[in-house]
Predict the structure.
Amino acid sequence: MERTAISASLLAVCFVLAACRGSLAAPFCPAQCVCETRPWYTPQSVYHQAKTVDCNELHLSKIPWNISIDTQVLLLQSNNISRVTSELQSLVNLTELDLSQNHFAQIQDVGLSNLTQLVTLYLEENQIKELPDTCLKDLANLEELYINHNQISSIGPNAFSGLGNLLRLHLNSNKLVAIDSHWFESLPNLEILMIGENPILGLQDMNFHPLSKLHSLVLAGMGLREIPEGAFQGLDYLESLSFFDNKLTAVPKKALSVLPSLKFLDLNKNPIVRIQEGDFRDFPHLEELSLNNMEELVAVEKGAFSNLAQMAKLELYNNPHLFLLTAALS
Ligand SMILES: *[C@@H]1O[C@H](CO)[C@@H](O)[C@H](O)[C@H]1NC(C)=O
Ligand SMILES: *[C@@H]1O[C@H](CO)[C@@H](O)[C@H](O)[C@H]1NC(C)=O
Ligand SMILES: *[C@@H]1O[C@H](CO)[C@@H](O)[C@H](O)[C@H]1NC(C)=O
Ligand SMILES: *[C@@H]1O[C@H](CO)[C@@H](O)[C@H](O)[C@H]1NC(C)=O
């Protein structure tokens, strides 16, 4: 009885607090959106409090009116927006903008000019077809760009010009048929590149050369049959590389040999027939190697793995035709 009374009065206090908060936020909060201060983490995982306007999943076809000019995080995921003109221009402190799952067909329609404070931009699951030269040029502080799951078939050589602080780029699940090393000349600080699930016809020598700070590269699901010997030249700090679900018939030994820092290598789901002597020789930092789900794999030759000082985890699961394994590991 007493308990109920206490919780009832607590509830009342909560309502009063909520009402106060609501009335403070009300003049500037667009209809149906939620406006409040929320935790926000930088890409380096530093905690901040951010003024957040959450208008996710509201069937909006336009950016709402009356967004407060001190807004730092604006969430508009899963709406029906296809065009922004100058609505974002007054948001001088905008650090995160989420326009994923909307209906943009052109990057020019996203209204990104002058958003110089933007750190994180989500544009995945739209229908953007092209990234022309300098289309993101004002985003000097951008650190993360998620533009995966669009229809991008063309990227200008200077499309990323101005993005000197970009750390993470997700371009996976688009329609790219080639990777142009000119793109990366504007991205000297990039650490993570996800570009899998594009119908790339093949890699070229020096394909990623300007990315001297890259840590992680995902080339999954691209139908790659072979890797040119010089494809990874210049990736001196690459630690993690995934070839998951490609068409490689042999370990790309020569291409891998230029990666002095490699720690994690995923070759799962490739039609590799034999792991040959010397395929994995002299990777002093290699810690994890995954060779799973290989229907065609029949043999791992003696001496396939040698001088792997740091190797902590070797996975060879789900390879139904593999024999001769003991010889390799003896
Ligand atoms: C914007 O806010 C003003 C006053 O705060 C209000 O009168 C107006 O109706 C709002 N506009 C919209 C479109 O909500
Ligand atoms: C933007 O951020 C700066 C620095 O924190 C602050 O001084 C300024 O008042 C903010 N501007 C707006 C419109 O909130
Ligand atoms: C989305 O917007 C388009 C016009 O841009 C309109 O034809 C369509 O009905 C809208 N869809 C929904 C679900 O609101
Ligand atoms: C925004 O950018 C346009 C051109 O991109 C420029 O003309 C305009 O002055 C800028 N506005 C502000 C508020 O900086």
Remarks:
- Residues 143 and 166 are 4 Å apart (CA to CA).
- The first strand starts at residue 34 and ends at 41.
- The mean pLDDT is 90.
